[in-house]
Structures are given as C-alpha cells and as structure tokens.
Amino acid sequence: MASHALILLQIIVLSSLAATAFSLSPYYYKNICPQALPTIKTLVEAAVYKERRMGASLLRLHFHDCFVNGCDASILLDPSPTIDSEKGALANQNSARGFEVIDEIKAEVDKICGRPVVSCADILAVAARDSVVALGGPSWKVRLGRRDSTTASRTQADIDIPSPLMDLPALINNFRNQGLNQRDLVALSGGHTIGFAQCLAFRGRIYNATNIDPSFAKERRATCPRTGGDTTLAPLDSTAARFDTAYFNSLVKQRGLLTSDQALFSGGSTDNLVNTYRLYPQVFRKDFAQSMIKMGNIKYLTGNQGQIRANCRMVNN
Question: pLDDT over 90 for what percent of the chain?
Fold first, then answer.
C-alpha cells in the first residue's frame, strides 16, 4: 500500500515538474546566457536612437507575430519552396520592417552566448519591450523560453492580423479569438501612441468618414491624395516618437487616424476605457504592460516543439 502511495506521489511530482519545465519564465536565460538580455537592450536602444520610428516597427513585429499561430517568430521567415512567408500578407507587405535589426541582434546574441540558444521569438518579445522603454513607455518582465516555428502561413496572417478598417465588433471578435478581452484590445491599441501608418490604410477614413474632426481630415488629405501616394506616412498620434496618452486624447477629439482606432471611441463598450487611459496615464501603462505579457503567452512553442533558429529568416537544415 505504501509503495502504491509512493508511486502516486512520484507521478504527481513528475507531472508538476513537466508542467513547470514547459512554462515561460523571465529568468530562462539567467544561467544559459546571462548577457543575452543586456545585449538585446543595447542594440534596440541604438536602433531607436538612430531612427525613433524603429521602436514602433519592432513592437509591431512582435504583435503581428503573436497573432498568427502564436508567438513563434513565423513572421521572420523569408519565402522559400516550403515557406509561405507571412511577409507577403496584406498587413505586412511593404509595411512590416525592422527585420535587419532583428538579424543584427540575433548575430550578436549568438556570438555572446557562444551558440544559438536564444530563440528569434524571444528576441522579438524582448525587443518589443525594450523599444517601448526606449520611447518612454513602461517596462515589464518578459517571460522567456519560446522556441521558433518551422512553418509560416501567409493565408492565416491575412485572416488573423486585425485590419485597420475593422469596426468595434470585428476588433472585439478578432482579439477574443486570441484569448484577449476588451481591456487588452484598448490597452494594446494604445501601442499606436508611437509610430506611423501608410496613406493606403487611412485614405477611406479621411475622405469618407463622418466621425472625424474636419480640420484633422483636411490636414491628412494634404499628404494623402485620393489616388496615389499609398505609402506616404502620417503619425498615428501627435507625439509619434513618444510613448504617452496622446493617442487616447486624439480619439476623444475624433482625430483617430485609422478606422480601427476611432472605433474604440464611437459610442460603444470601450469608450470608458479610452477615457480612463486618457485621464490616468499610470493605469494605461500598467494595463499595457500586463496585456503585452498576456499577448506574449499566445500559443508559444517550448520543449521539443519547433527549434532555435540559427538564422531568423530560415528554418534550420
């Protein structure tokens, strides 16, 4: 009888250890390669110092990665006979950027660590956090230990990455499909407090919308004509190089650049959250950090799943 109890106890302990071993941890690289995170931070800071816009681009890469089959660095894979690259998806084509910065980080981290031990998926997650901090935003403990995918899906990217044309119900449903709630939707959308959007993404709004400040629409039309100039950039809020709450202030004034931005303050269920974040910056910063951690937990690979790519752009041979 005692032996049966001992066996049962061993099974419980082993099951517990297995569960723990495959969960993410902020300290994953502490013993494997303690210089990994400081190296990423240094290179992200240098990239953002060189070009402030790069901070938003690196944040966006992590977001677009996680929304397509989880946070597995699939967005970084180049096209090949076996890879239907997500870089060709509607939301990424001629728009996603920062790949060279990730390449540089990967090369330097592997050099510091002596071998490829840091996944490209973890590099994306840490680079997103360090970009936000470099632009004055909050910090958080990034949970680490993800592995990299061996596949990508342009088709899935076209389905899962939220469109700038979405209304509120579509946005809520899109985020719900990823296990994210309305608070996550508004907090993560607040990432648009940094960065720019292309004319193609907001042309319909500035020429056709009724819930838009007329002077703002006129201002944006000056650089985004009805035809042509698709890639011309406009800031997502009035302080595009600084992480603050100007984004939420702009929504209340009907000066949201994208249809999906203004949808968050349009008489719907997220209006109160927009007002809360506008009036209480610390609440926004706290919720943004928590939602970033939550997003980073979407369908990650661990253990024997996937691989640690030697080159973020291609699957290991």
Answer: 92
The C-alpha angle 222, 158, 119, rounded to 5 degrees, equals: 105
For 56-94, write each residue's pLDDT tens digit: 999 999 999 999 999 999 999 999 999 999 999 999 999
Q: Does 65 belong to an annotated binding site?
A: yes
Asked whether residue 230 is marked as a ligand-binding residue, the answer is: no
> Domain spans of the chain?
25-161, 168-295
pLDDT in tens, 106-158: 999 999 999 999 999 999 999 999 999 999 999 999 999 999 999 999 999 99
Distance from C-alpha of 119 to C-alpha of 141, rounded to nearest angstrom: 17
Q: Read off the pLDDT band of 174 (50, 70, 90).
A: very high
Q: Quick one: CA torsion of 103, 104, 110, 116, rounded to 10 degrees?
A: 0
Q: What is the CATH number of domain 168-295?
A: 1.10.420.10
According to the annotation, is 70 in a ligand binding site? yes
Helix (H) or strand (E) holding 2: helix 2-21
What would the CATH number be for the domain defined by 25-161? 1.10.520.10
Which of 64, 147, 220, 294 is the catalytic position? 64
Whether 64 is a known active-site residue: answer yes
